[in-house]
Design goal:
Rossmann fold, 10 helices, UDP-galactose 4-epimerase, domain 1, about 15% strand, binds NADPH dihydro-nicotinamide-adenine-dinucleotide phosphate, about 325 residues, seven-stranded parallel sheet, 13 strands, alpha/beta, about 45% helix
Length: about 325
């Protein structure tokens, strides 16, 4: 019998890749998603006819209840969120509504309807926040010292997952994803932002100057296609109630990311510091230990970093060419 998977955040970056991954590899899974009345559909345009979408805003309980009643999922991948750290400083209430209240609505709807899906929730490495040098690579047991409203909202999501598992036996698997990137990542995020700026220069639409923020921060990057494979393994092989780091285990400074992207683009560009791109309190070094997840599911990253960067750069070149051709 066909299994049913509901993806929240399917119109976003990771959600659209997850839908593609499931369609390609698990034809026995029927895919449901949610979208809001003005959700951009660009990321799922090529697969729209293979999906069933419900109009639903997770902050609106009624729409969540109706979506779950109709979709009756075996799996829920809960990826929807206000996912951008800087916005969370400017809009903490909105961020908590989109991340915390939304998840309460989702869990309560599952509980009230008596459904029994396995639920993966997309928590984040940002929860670790302030990490001491001696704590790297970070394990799941590390203290959580969040440094932004976004990170606090993810801690709340994370512990809520734990609490609903303990209180109601709901099959919730928490993944703490470290940075993931690749084609379709929003342009406000650093790798995508650099790739887009370089693509604009490559196409001759911008002068050869690239604007940057803090280049010293070190992040652990996983390709989004490896990340969504991890999400599927989390619901199929992960243990409910557990929390798992999903990471590459390798740290790259933002400066190195920039250098690699410039090399891939083949351009000669000037790098300019832009203070507007700095955060009030930035996490300096985040590198994850994914051995617990590997032990339980067999997952390990497969796509090398240069391939991710090349695909991201080419994505932007292609996207911007199309935009300009349409004008
Ligand atoms: P995106 O910002 O690309 O996508 C967010 C999605 O959430 C969109 O589909 C958006 O819909 C949807 N959404 C937001 N608010 C609501 C709401 N109130 N009701 C319904 N849908 C809503 O995020 P990513 O794909 O990058 O991230 C997916 C998840 O992974 C997020 O939870 C994020 O916090 C987490 N994460 C991401 C990391 C990364 O590096 N990418 C790292 C660690 C965790 P719409 O199209 O309508 O705006």
């Amino acid at each position: 019998m066909k299994k049913r998977a509901l993806i929240t955040g399917i119109t976003g970056f990771a959600g659209s890749h997850l839908a593609e991954f499931l369609l390609e590899n698990y034809p026995n899974i029927e895919i449901f998603g949610i979208s809001r009345w003005r959700s951009p559909k660009d990321n799922i345009l090529k697969i729209l006819d293979k999906l069933t979408l419900f109009e639903c805003d997770l902050t609106d309980f009624n729409s969540v209840l109706e979506t779950l009643k109709s979709s009756k999922p075996d799996y829920i991948f809960h990826l929807a969120a206000q996912s951008f750290v800087p916005t969370s400083w400017r809009m903490p209430v909105y961020t908590f509504n989109a991340n915390v209240i939304a998840q309460i609505n989702l869990f309560e709807a599952v509980r009230i309807l008596g459904l029994d899906p396995t639920i993966q929730i997309a928590c984040s490495s940002e929860e670790y926040g302030l990490v001491l040098e001696s704590e790297i690579p970070i394990k799941e047991t590390n203290p959580l010292r969040p440094l932004s409203p976004y990170a606090v909202s993810k801690v709340a999501q994370d512990y809520m997952g734990y609490q609903y598992f303990q209180s109601y036996g709901m099959k919730i698997v928490r993944t703490r994803g470290f940075n993931h990137t690749g084609p379709r990542r929003g342009e406000v995020f650093v790798v995508s932002n650099f790739a887009k700026q370089l693509a604009l220069i490559k196409l001759g639409y911008a002068p050869p100057v690239i604007k940057v923020g803090n280049l010293d921060a070190v992040r652990d990057f996983t390709d989004v296609r490896d990340m969504v494979r991890a999400y599927y393994l989390a619901v199929s092989r992960g243990k409910p109630g557990e929390v798992y780091n999903v990471a590459s285990g390798k740290g790259y400074s933002i400066r190195e990311v920039l250098d690699r992207l410039i090399r891939i683009s083949g351009l000669d560009v000037k790098v300019e510091r832009d203070p507007k791109r700095e955060r009030p309190s930035d996490v300096m070094r985040l590198v994850g230990d994914y051995s617990k997840f590997h032990k339980d599911t067999g997952w390990k990253p497969e796509i090398d970093f240069d391939t991710t960067l090349k695909d991201t750069f080419n994505y932007w070149v292609e996207k911007l060419q199309v935009v300009v051709k349409k004008r």
